[in-house]
Amino acid sequence: MAASGAAAQTLDWQAVEKLSPRTWISVETQKRTECSFQRATDDMLYCEFQHVNWMFGAVGPKTVHVFDRAEIREVRIVYFDYSSRPPSLLFALEGGGGLDSTHQASSFAGVKVSGPIGWDLKYDRIQGNNGCSFEYQAMLPILRIPRFRGNNKNKFLRLYAEPGLGYRGGGGPFGGYSSAKVMAVLLPSKWLDSPGAPYVEFQRRFPFESPLRGDNRLTFGVIVANW
Questions:
Q1: CB contact at 8 A, 27 and 72
Q2: Do 137 and 65 share a structural domain?
Q3: In angstroms, rounded to a whole number, what is the distance separating the alpha carbons of residues 84 and 158?
Q4: Are residues 72 and 172 in the same domain?
Q5: CATH number of the domain that residue 44 is part of
Q6: If you ran DSSP here, which 8-state letter would residue 78 be given?
Q7: Which of 77, 124, 179, 196 gives the lowest tally of CB atoms within 10 Å of its CB?
């Protein structure tokens, strides 16, 4: 077996048979195919591929690939950085506080359900008034610290930009607004194995009626995601 990007090595079929299901591999016959490993027998290798449109969250049907061992020239593990694309599904519990345009403290709590496009729903208290806000937003990867390096098992920090539009109803200021957020998530090397990941998010909101009289908010939460 050879790591992706390394020199080709003689195929070790015993190593192939011991691969964990869902390991991303590259199989070379007369052409090269990348897919998710399922299982291997003495004579056959089974893997599957599912097309996903990460921009719109559309998921296509799964395609099962079956390879005859006699036709396989090489199998490689492909180390892929799942965090380099938006999640297909993300759920988060969050809460925090901030300062409005008059420097008064505010607080809020809510949930985030997202993919490449998603939404936030929050209950808040601003200037002594209770209200609810709903935001529609994108989730765009912008930076990873440290950079991705093959099968590195260390934790890393991933930054996301989240432009969006929202509306706040209830007592107090706002109404419709635009939003700019930056989220920092602390993650293990394999997203799909993570039961939950902590994050912090900074947000600036710009009310449509008076963009210069917005507020700043700091959010803390935990996400569970599927990539």
A1: yes
A2: no
A3: 9
A4: no
A5: 2.30.30
A6: -
A7: 196
